[in-house]
Model the fold of this input.
Amino acid sequence: MTPPRPRADRGQTLPLYIWLTGILLFAAIAFFVFAQAASARNGAQSAADAAALAAAQDSRDELMTGLEGAIGRDDDWLKWLQGQGLQGAGASAAADRLAADNDSTVVATVPTTVNGFPGYRVTIQTRYTVGKSIIPGTETRHASAEAVAVIQPRCTLPSAPDPKKPVHLDCDGQSVDIDPRHFQSDDLPDASVLFSVHLAE
Done:
């Protein structure tokens, strides 16, 4: 027969139980706050990525327009295939639109270069906040993020090409032939064949 436990032992268990419950409760709240912040950061990064890509894609369209207008009219038309001559007039507006679609605001859209390729560094801030929590100030704190997207020419030019004669391009394994003397806009492939747009590593 097991002797009854002393009443003092049972009294010591209650404070321990309360202490452990408090620790678990605090851990659960801390995890919730961390999850809130992580969610806001992820949303901000997604918005920044989308805005940077939008800016670069708009400039890729500009390169295509410049190339189309220069072939057969400008002896320096090959520069467009190398990403030169880019002004980026609509890049900021394109970034603003995509950021707004992701409930964010663009803080800055800055032209940049990565490994010699043109691109844009876009910084955004979310319009929504981290949310209320036990940590003071989170209900007014907005998440921020930054992303860089680049426009990378995909075509290899022949050595010493003559801009007045037909030019054969190797665009990552896809052949593209451009004859400036008999050029029509339909001769150009899709923009994605000539230029890739991607986030910088």
